Amino acid sequence: MKAILASFLLAFNLIQALAQDTTLVLNTSMFEPKQDINLSSLDRWIYHEGNNINWAERNINAAEWQRLKPADLSVKYADKTGRAEGWFRLKFRLDSTFEGLPLAFDKNSWAAVDLYVDGQLIASFGNTGSNGETYQEHYPYYKPHWPVNLKPGQDYLIAIHLVDYVSPFSSKKLKSELEDSNKVLLYLSGPDSNAYWLSFCRSNPVYATLWMSISLIMTILFWLLSYQDLYEKK
């Protein structure tokens, strides 16, 4: 009887793990207008609090992992020190519509992240502290996309080691929640997206400089007018 019960529990845990760690199929119809897919908001992600480098591997027992997508990460996952640390996993496959299309990953969150594909470290954004160095958040603006070689029809495993902290401005939110950057943690982008953001990064400083110059000129003019008015009253 005990052997039957043990076999049943083993089978149940195996089925649960397989059900959690299932494969998501992506196609180009999922691209948003700037030719990118917001992976953070898709289902099929699983999450585990803490840190274990083995969680980057393709095949692990995911029975104790919970269904959670990066877009839903919140302050309730932070510990008593205000630190939120854990791993996200997503198995996915590209369909044939991606054939011949160059792809890249793009990250738009303040949280520090180590990004793995099939157990291999692809990129680090900020510093999670896993290398023994001090934690450093990721500055998400004006950063280039990270090219990645993915083939249609092949299964891949994304594993994300993420570290974030409670915001110094609001104890009810993680820092990445303040600008909803947890909802855009990771994108899969095509070449048009990279071109768009490259153009934006090049042009935006020009507009910012122009705006600041105009503001400065207007301030000087108002100051001169005020000075002239004061002089005329004398």
Architecture blueprint of SSEs:
Blueprint: H1 2-20, E1 23-26, E2 36-38, E3 46-49, E4 66-67, E5 83-94, E6 103-106, E7 112-117, E8 120-125, E9 146-148, E10 155-165, H2 175-178, E11 187-189, H3 191-233
Parallel strand pairs: 1-5
Antiparallel strand pairs: 2-11, 3-4, 3-5, 5-10, 6-9, 6-11, 7-8, 7-10
Mean pLDDT: 80
Overall shape: globular
User: For the terminal residues, how far apart are their CA atoms?
Assistant: 106 Å
Rg, rounded, reads: 24 Å
Oligomer: single chain
Helicity range of the residues? Answer: 25-40%
Fraction of residues in β-strands: 15-25%
Main structural class: alpha+beta
Number of helices: 3
Number of strands: 11
Instruction: List low-confidence stretches.
Output: 4-19
The biggest beta sheet is recorded as: 7 strands, mixed
Topology as a string of helices (H) and strands (E): HEEEEEEEEEEHEH
Structure description:
It is a single chain. The chain has 234 residues and is of the alpha+beta class. The chain has three helices and eleven strands. It has helices spanning 2-20, 175-178, 191-233, and strands at 23-26, 36-38, 46-49, 66-67, 83-94, 103-106, 112-117, 120-125, 146-148, 155-165, 187-189. Strands 1, 3, 4, 5, 7, 8 and 10 form a seven-stranded mixed beta sheet that branches. Strands 2-11-6-9 form a four-stranded antiparallel beta sheet. The radius of gyration is 24 Å and the shape is globular.
